[in-house]
Design a protein that fits this description.
- It is a single chain.
- The chain is an alpha+beta fold.
- It has one domain.
- Helices cover 23% and strands 40% of the residues.
- The chain has helices spanning 2-15, 57-68, 80-94; strands at 34-43, 48-56, 95-99, 102-103, 107-114, 117-124, 132-137, 147-155, 158-165, 170-174.
- The strands form two sheets. Strands 5-6-2-1-8-9 form a six-stranded mixed sheet. A four-stranded antiparallel sheet has the order 4-3-7-10.
């Protein structure tokens, strides 16, 4: 058990701990993990689901470039409008939440870049307590078959997690 926990700890720590690109050697520039982390939290007072996705910036940028046949640079302000257009389209095609049998509408809030990561924010409004959430998640599967998608879902104070390895795309959460 300790080995498994240490492996997860190293995986999650490495997700945010890479040196800036200008300080990396050519070998270090290619990271060994392809992982996204999705947090879904039920905000009872706002009657909403707040969703954040965390990606390696370079992976997310490459996935959007591949999907939409464009050249983008997530570090420049000039491409912000393109990202604001492409992100909601890409996410809606690769991430679906169904609550008690009904597909939830994801509303795009925005994105931000933080070091080597990109955070994308969405919201589902008019969300009341659900007994079951079904998630389809194949984010970045079109980029690499080594992709791992970790999800943490919190509804009514109850937190559940799931990990999807390519080619698995579906997870169910009971509350």
């Amino acid at each position: 058990m300790a080995f498994i926990l240490s492996k997860w700890f190293l995986l999650l720590m490495s997700f945010g701990s890479f040196a800036p690109a200008e300080k990396q050697s050519a070998v270090e520039a290619v990271h060994p993990f392809y992982v996204s982390v999705t947090e879904v939290s039920h905000n009872t007072s706002e009657k909403s689901l707040e969703i954040s996705y965390k990606f390696f910036a370079d992976d997310f940028e490459h996935a959007l470039e591949k999907a939409y046949k464009v050249q983008l640079d997530i570090t420049t302000e000039k491409d912000k409008a393109s990202f604001d257009k492409l992100i909601p389209d890409y996410i809606s095609k690769h991430f679906v939440i169904t609550t008690d049998g009904k597909q939830a509408k994801l509303n795009y809030v925005g994105y931000e870049k933080d070091k080597e990561s990109v955070y994308c924010y969405f919201e589902v409004t008019n969300f009341f307590a659900a007994k079951r959430l079904d998630v389809t998640n194949n984010l970045l599967y079109d980029l690499t078959q080594e992709q791992i998608n970790i999800m943490h879902i919190t509804v009514n104070g109850k937190r559940q997690s799931s990990k999807l390895n390519y080619p698995d795309t579906k997870a169910a959460f009971q509350f």
